[in-house]
Amino acid sequence: MSAEKILILGPAWVGDMVLAQSLFKSIKANKPDCVIDVAAPAWTLPLLERMPEVNKAIALPFKHGEPALLKRIKFGKSLRNKGYTQAIILTNSFKSALLPWATGIKRRTGFLGEIRYGLINDIRPLDKIKLKKTVERFVFLGLNENQEIPENLPNPQLTSTPEGAWVLASRHGIKNDKSKILGLCPGAEYGEAKRWPAEYYAEVAVAALSKGWRVWLFGSDKDIPVTSHINQLTQSQCTDFAGKTKLGEAIDLISVCDTVISNDSGLMHVAAALDRKLIAIFGSSDPYHTPPMHPDAVIEYLGLDCSPCFKRECPLGHLNCLKQITPGRITKLIQA
Q: Could you give the C-alpha distances from 133 to 25, 127, 321, 328, in angstroms and in order?
């Protein structure tokens, strides 16, 4: 009997894709001989390339949020002869279930989501009380029916090439002099209510620099304004990689950091999966829903009466959930 071949329709967000590795690891633990292919937006492929459980990463040729229903059906048909025995759909939209249906995969597993009767024929019940965390919901979809979710889920573990990090660093005039490195990830695409103030990050950076640490700033093109502001406040003593690295390069650079401070963002999950000492700062979001998957990660969350509100901007105008987490508090954690 040939090994099972599973097509997984992956999430579009970096953080969720990191969490999805717990599903891949769980499937491999139960079915060591199975083959896992993952179809997902192209920008997530550098993550999949660093997950040993994934046989093949398939870039989806659709823009984020684009319905493209006919395109999805056509692309699904192009995968018909790949021998897939099961599809697992991690997102809950109608359009995401079209592709595996068009592929003709007999067993299509997922939550009902946007009324997907017929498109999904192995519908799993979503108990939001029992499955509070995103990672639990992902892993649940990989279990057999009536199988209980394990108490201890496997943590994501991305592979990295530190040598590549230093090659890239050398292009920025940085030599490996064995100095400790503090990585700062001050962005959060969702909005201001997930971003610890830039002035606070700068204060922590100055404290680390005074102790002889290097400070590296990470983020996408969209984070350049905040990383530039932080660097300006430190008299340009930090190395600002925001917008200057591809995701795979950022992964390698983060892998050589001694400590990483991050908002609740995709890079927070990357740092956890690279086994870095991580201080994760939560404001408007819920650390019980999408916590970093590392046993030693330090979560800074005040749990105010107004938290979590899940808003992009503070509806009360004060942003106390973040502003009351002081730089001194974080600096002490770095030195611990």
A: 17, 11, 21, 30
Reported as half-sphere exposure (CB side, CA atoms, 13 A), residue 317 has a value of 0
- Annotation: CATH topology of 5-141: Rossmann fold (3.40.50)
The three state secondary structure string of 39-63 is EEEHHHHHHHCCCCCCCEEEEECCC
Assigned token pair, 214: 């290097």
- Which residue numbers in the chain have pLDDT < 70? 1-2, 336
Query: Tokens in use for 322?
Result: 């973040």
What pLDDT is recorded for position 1? Answer: 53
At residue 183, the pLDDT reads 98
Residue type, 297: A
Q: Which residues contact 146 (CB under 8 A, 6 or more apart)?
A: none
DSSP 225: H
What does CATH list as the number for 163-335? 3.40.50.2000
**What length is written for the chain?**
336
Alpha helices in the chain (DSSP H): 14-30, 45-48, 69-77, 94-103, 134-141, 162-171, 198-210, 224-233, 247-255, 266-273, 320-323, 327-335
